[in-house]
Write a structure and sequence with these properties.
Length: 168
């Protein structure tokens, strides 16, 4: 937003849109909400700290929702493989390994259906849904049995940044 300073009275003229202070409201949720999406294959499950490219959900963010979208059905040789989906720090320290989607939500029966959407707030909500993240979180997807043979999924997390303020 450009400014023009008038030298006579040292007054600034503002050009372009101006936002009111947050205490007066008026900003849309889309200015404050962040959406992170991870897509992965059965043999390349998201793991924190492998590089500096992993998306980080910052400390103090509030998780609004977490969903697992099944693009290609997950298949395992034991047919009993469930998925835990949560957050860890880049050093691999657990924030909550099933804080986004629990094994009770992502059972073999639910992850074995292409097109299914598994909601982390359904039934008994996962621990981080509706809560504040206690550390810089990177996505961790863990099967309870390591025998997946097929499948592609997306994890979609909606969150608010800590003390989120819209861009000026």
């Amino acid at each position: 937003m450009p400014y023009e300073r008038m030298p006579i009275r040292n007054v600034s003229a503002h050009f372009g849109p101006r936002r009111p202070a947050m205490q007066f409201g008026g900003d849309t949720v889309q200015d404050l909400k962040q959406i992170a999406v991870w897509q992965f294959n059965f043999n390349e499950l998201p793991t924190p700290g492998l590089s500096n490219l992993e998306h980080v959900i910052p400390t103090g963010s509030t998780i609004l929702n977490a969903r697992l979208r099944i693009i290609t059905a997950f298949v395992s040789s034991s047919t009993t493989t469930d998925l835990d989906i949560g957050l860890q720090t880049s050093a691999g320290v657990e924030i909550d390994n099933d804080g986004l989607i629990t094994v009770a939500q992502a059972t073999q029966a639910t992850i074995g259906v292409a097109g299914a959407i598994i909601d982390g707030s359904s039934g008994t909500p996962a621990a981080l849904v509706g809560k504040i993240v206690s550390g810089n979180g990177e996505l961790k997807v863990t099967p309870n049995v390591n025998d997946l043979t097929a499948g592609v999924g997306q994890v979609i997390v909606e969150y608010l940044l800590p003390a989120a303020l819209p861009a000026a």
